[in-house]
Amino acid sequence: MSRFSFRRTAQCGAARLGRMHTAHGAVDTPAFMPVGTQGTVKAVTTEELRRCGAQIVLSNTYHLYLRPGHEVVAELGGLHRFMNWPGPILTDSGGFQVFSLADLRRVDDEGVRFQSHVDGSSHVLTPEKSMEVQTALGSDIAMVLDECPPGPATREQIAAAVDRTTHWARRCREVYSGPGVAFGIVQGGPFLDLREQSVREITELDFPGYAVGGVSVGEPGPTISPTVRRTAAMLPEDRPRYLMGVGKPADLVQAVDAGIDLFDCVMPTRNARNGTLFTSHGRVNIKRNEYRSDPRPLDENCPCEACTHYSRGYLRHLFLAGEILAARLHTIHNLTYYLSLMERMRWAIAASRFAELRDELLGRLATREEQS
Amino acid sequence: MSRFSFRRTAQCGAARLGRMHTAHGAVDTPAFMPVGTQGTVKAVTTEELRRCGAQIVLSNTYHLYLRPGHEVVAELGGLHRFMNWPGPILTDSGGFQVFSLADLRRVDDEGVRFQSHVDGSSHVLTPEKSMEVQTALGSDIAMVLDECPPGPATREQIAAAVDRTTHWARRCREVYSGPGVAFGIVQGGPFLDLREQSVREITELDFPGYAVGGVSVGEPGPTISPTVRRTAAMLPEDRPRYLMGVGKPADLVQAVDAGIDLFDCVMPTRNARNGTLFTSHGRVNIKRNEYRSDPRPLDENCPCEACTHYSRGYLRHLFLAGEILAARLHTIHNLTYYLSLMERMRWAIAASRFAELRDELLGRLATREEQS
């Protein structure tokens, strides 16, 4: 079997249904990738991930490089065996975490110098190093190292990041000889002409898939700006398109509508641990007193373990008592919500009814965001 | 079906094989009860408990009374439904936790006044209140309220506790009308004559089962003193005997040898969360550097989820990274160890080979305690 292929099987407007084949199995797109930062999606097993509907997981190169170290993971048989996930794995380049988590960063054309947030030790992440680490991990999809200016940046800074991202992508392309494939990343911030330049330069390198990076996340308002929408449309139709770090449920719907195929975000898992749950009735803050003696399931429309076996009153109790089981059940629920949402979108595209579903979902999600 | 029955099916020396029937199912004895303090055995689901081999769980009246409140549990259908455990549940009286956790305790013949360790609120636990709370929870086996002097106590204090325990046991016996049965508790500390007095007074009240309380736990040296051994022998042969809060694996073996049928202890679950794991090779401290790249399972003789799917290197990584999955897998492993140990003892009694197994286990466990 070849390392990688992607086939579009249906399209509805710009929304695409597809199937991505990797050395560790197939992924139906549009797909959401749960985030397993340190070689585990927090609080759940890989068997539970599968039951939630996950077909692919993302893991973070930066964290695994620092702890336990990519050599250790390689000695233990690679990341798939290490974490007991036989399916496809995508790893990021480590760059985003260096820019957002590490101390004392210094970027130059060679790479990024930084100090570990774990123990303060000094490291250099270069395009070559990122590819080496992701190869050791055994990723099915490795991401090239890009420069993603953190926070608000000037046009000049973003233009420089686009140039450097192209330069680094070329070096990644040259050295990568891992077990999977490497995807390119487009930068350019909110500037459409810089996005165009980045798309042109990165697609010239002919990667089997492309990501849209540098999209502001965690801020109020729509994540899927016209620029992102138009950037997605510039990317080759026959390659998967990945919108990194996105997002809220409404963002996913809008991005699929813009022709995006792949997503990852910590929101379902992080919110779960904070007691914020996504349901068909809107967001639920489980610690609210109104749930104290509530015998109903969190969401009567949800088939997950939490909704099948437990009451809201019990989930609230577990959360307030600080019990690990709260994090487990909430994570299973939120992942089921996200992965079911993706599945509904895939069915709607297949049935040529995506626009209807999109309007229905965005209408309801807008109302519910206000409630929460 | 009757609320409760107990039948001995084999005996080997003083060690007894039995079957205890409750309104929520049967329990093969000698049995170990995992501790579900706040309505969950920490880090695991009840389905996992079942897979680990648990037939009965213990829950703590004190904790559930304070949070979420026994009325809330009752409104939500009782503890079995609340925590999704359809099997037998034993609850303690709340007394031990009041004596060990609560602030500003004041004991008199009426009961114990105390302040909640959760929010400082004032409460009174009386024999009647304890029975009321355990009835609301729906326990299959409720424990009478006893006085258990914490820490080192004089003979005079222990003698007074024996008297008060008898007085309270009588009041519990009179008011209990719950869905299950109430067990009596014998006190008397290390004084054989006080134990004899307590056994005489408590058994006169004719409970369907008896516990030996006030056994010092968590201290070095053998838990199963000659006094405990002789106290067990004084209890009626046709009723289950429960050694509360015990203990280490070697303690369980010695206590079964003394004719004890029921145990509970936080050791397997608490140690799991601290990274101390029980294996057929002795105790393992998973954070040790020697396990860093160790591809072997924690215990190649163990059929649990942790040992089937994960390497020592991965478990060490999860533990050092503070991942919830470490607590989960370690808890499943340690409970499997404890519950398998009980099963081996039951088979040995049935096969009239308990003495052999006891000597083998105690020999190996002694060596291994020294290693750890």
In short:
Chain A is of the alpha/beta class and 372 residues long. In chain A, 43% of the residues lie in helices and 19% in strands.
Task: For this entry, give a set of tags.
alpha/beta; globular; three-stranded antiparallel β-sheet; 372 residues; homodimer
How would you describe this structure to a colleague?
2 copies of one chain form a homodimer. Chain A is of the alpha/beta class. Helices cover 43% and strands 19% of the residues of chain A. The first copy, chain A, is built from 15 helices and 17 strands. In chain A, strands 4-15-14-13-12-11-7-6-5 form a 9-stranded parallel sheet. In chain A, strands 1-2-3 form a 3-stranded antiparallel sheet. In chain A, strand 9 and strand 10 (122-125) form a beta hairpin. The longest helix of chain A is centred in the C-terminal third of the chain and has 27 residues, at 324-350. The termini of chain A are far apart. The mean pLDDT of chain A is 94. Chains A and B meet through helix 13 and helix 14 of A and helix 13 and helix 14 of B.
